Write the structure tokens for this entry.
Amino acid sequence: MALVSMGPMLKRARAQGYGIAAYNMIDYNSARAVVEGAQALDAPVIVQVSVKTVKHWGYTPIAHWVRDLAATVDVPVALHLDHCTDLDVLRRCIDAGWTSVMFDGSSLPFEENLDKSLKAYAMTEQAGVGLEAEIGAIGGVEDDKHVNEDEARLANFDECVRFVRDMPNLAVFAPAIGTAHGMYKGEAKIAYDLLERITASISIPIALHGGTGLTEEQFHRCIAGGCAKVNISTMHKMLYINSFVKLKEQKPNLEEPLTFIAAQNEAMKEDVKSVIKIFGSAGKAADARSVLTQRH
């Protein structure tokens, strides 16, 4: 399939009560594992890219990799830019072929975040791609953004309602509900009551950031509460590194790089498949395709 915008399939996922996995790719092998894992289980999927990764590999190469991978499968694949604070980077990704982007102004005062998010929204509306926006401060480390435990804060409900009022076609909304990027030091303290209030008042799908380390029960409860997009990054990165290390420990004399790359791909792909089963999106490719004639 051609790359798709994530907005319509996330709306469908929220309505049908399942979550779509959004994996942060690292390189071509990583992106291939995400797409092949989704194809194996007939599931829609989102390949998302950090700004750091975009700047490392380049806008055009990444767009070509994911577009070519999507063309080899018959499940919906979206290409999404994650946690971007620079409107110029958003524009360059849109021009290169990204089908959705995220503007993250969550570190800014509310009015400034709203103003810049509306600028990003106008840009994506004109281009016909989806936008994710965020308020509140999600703790942990994501790309070069560090938010410690003392700085993390839940989204304000009234601000959430006001924030999305003038962005009716927002593809997905990311309010901070207590999850964190990276590995959890203890059990995640998710504000389910806040999530329920938000989803009772806002029909836009919700993004769950900080998915690595949550329990199946926590995933299920968040997805049932309206979290249609579920982000996984840290675990993917760990498997990317550890699969190399593990094989080298098992076979210290092995010197064929492609054997390591194949092992890496298999480890990441199996994790993608495991997560898709937990999120309830296995077998939902046709369901997601049914709404892909809609914009955003």
Q: What stands out?
A: The two ends are 17 Å apart (CA to CA).
